[in-house]
Amino acid sequence: MAEGYRCSRSVMVLSLVGFLLTLQLYFVASRTNAVSGDSQLRASLAQAEEENMQAPFHRTKRFLQAAKRRQKQPTTMVDEFLDHNSPLHRVFFPDMATAVNPVNGSKYYRPGSIWLDTDANPIQAHGGGILYDEISGTYYWYGEYRDVPKGSATGRDLWTWKNEGIVLAADLENQTHDLYISNVLERPRVIYNEITGKYVMWMHIDTGNYSKAAVGIATGDSPTGPFEYLRSLRPHGRDSRDMTIFKDDDGVAYLIYSSQGNSELHIGTLTDDYLDVQLDMQRILVGQQREAPAVFKYQGTYYMITSACTGWAPNEALAHAAETIMGPWETIGDPCIGGTTMFRLAAFLSQSTFVIPLPGTPGSYVFMADRWNPAQLNDSRYVWLPLTVGDPDGRPFEFDFGFPSWPRVSIYWHQKWRLPLGWRS
Ligand SMILES: *[C@@H]1O[C@H](CO)[C@@H](O)[C@H](O)[C@H]1NC(C)=O
Ligand SMILES: *[C@@H]1O[C@H](CO)[C@@H](O)[C@H](O)[C@H]1NC(C)=O
Ligand SMILES: *[C@@H]1O[C@H](CO)[C@@H](O)[C@H](O)[C@H]1NC(C)=O
Ligand SMILES: CC(=O)N[C@H]1CO[C@H](CO)[C@@H](O)[C@@H]1O
To answer: What InterPro entries does its record include (predicted)?
Structure first.
């Protein structure tokens, strides 16, 4: 996710002219289902809320004056959402009053609200990824610590997160070091290597102006590190910005990264020790300008959610599918369901980062995304929502006359939701 690195500015043309928006979000559950077992769990996740955004939207004088000074109107919904002076900004970045606090124990996700850890501090794990550590039976969430040092880890039950500290610290002195404080570290991903017994972290490494475009590799002996930084490299000799790592069922791991100036994605296999990439590489979604890849697998098919490249501004999410991970990959379409059209077309004002499998509900996942706040990145919010593959009602998949026709991937909007009991087993 690169600020100032915009490969295509797909502007939201949902203008706010004479427009009306408020916080009275009332919603209707679109479907309810009474089925049994796994499908019941899945069905409980596969419901979206329709947000009814209406009634007069009050714009402050300060905001209107600022807009006039910029001589920019009408603003798009996304421009206004990103503008700190806009009341709309506060709607989507609500303050501490709505913070999710694990001490209260309700276990509801509230996408966009401040999310506190077990010490009652806002979680700092942006652009994050999840490791399920089979040895300890614990989930670890690694993300960007945006308050100054970099690379953070927390862990537990997908809702109650304990801060495990900085696992890969910034270098405060050595200006030529990749981890020097003014450089960029984004989207850390950790996987466990059964052969070496090491936890291996891959991350996007860059200079402040995003010209280095590399990946960095670090290793640790435990999920909480400390991780030792090994080096950075340009995979396959190519520029690499937004990236992710996918570890397959057979233990083979893959690096997926935006390349060629973010115009396409590349997929390459890691070496057996996960410390390098092998020579083989496939170019996918060529010319489509996608970033923020999040990969998962269901019933032998690979899926990926991506965003367009519009800097920190949100844009439309797309789902893609492939029969083998090296492709060919096909675009299925926008997975977002619920909310209003403009909200869906901006991926609920967020950008994909990871997809977490729910072992007790096959075909159901948690979609993890970031609602970036570019003026204050440490106050960026998390948007976690249920994602399903296929149709939980068991209806036939939507017909597509192209080949092959893929199951539908759906991400359901909820203001408030929780995991069904039994998601873990
Ligand atoms: C600073 O970092 C560079 C690059 O990693 C390294 O080669 C050099 O030895 C480091 N210098 C010191 C004083 O640690
Ligand atoms: C980007 O920053 C690096 C140092 O961090 C510098 O060497 C390079 O010249 C800069 N590139 C551009 C295009 O400004
Ligand atoms: C973000 O950083 C600013 C100062 O840089 C600080 O005042 C603020 O409390 C931080 N916000 C969060 C959510 O950590
Ligand atoms: C909604 C709610 O009950 N929030 C409370 C959760 O617990 C913290 C700390 O005890 C309180 O400050 C909140 O008011």
So the answer is: Glyco_hydro_43, Glyco_hydro_beta-prop_sf
In CATH terms, the fold of domain 123-287 is Tachylectin-2; Chain A (2.115.10)
Contacts 24+ apart (CB under 8 A), 183-186: 183/207, 183/208, 183/212, 184/208, 184/210, 185/144, 185/150, 185/151, 185/216, 186/1, 186/127, 186/144, 186/242
Query: pLDDT of 88-133, one tens digit each?
Result: 888 899 999 999 998 876 889 999 999 999 999 999 999 999 999 9
Domain ranges of the chain: 1-112+291-425, 123-287
Cα distance between residue 199 and residue 44, in whole Å: 35
List the one residue out of 14, 19, 15, 91 whose CA is nearest residue 55.
Answer: 19
pLDDT band, very low/low/confident/very high, at 81 (cuts 50, 70, 90): confident
- The ligand placed nearest to the CA atom of residue 100 is 4
Ligand 3, CB cutoff 6 Å, lining residues? 122, 147, 376, 378-379
Closest C-alpha to 75, from 1, 21, 5: 21
* Ligand of minimum distance to the alpha carbon of 108: 4
Protein residue with its CA nearest to atom 1 in ligand 4: 104
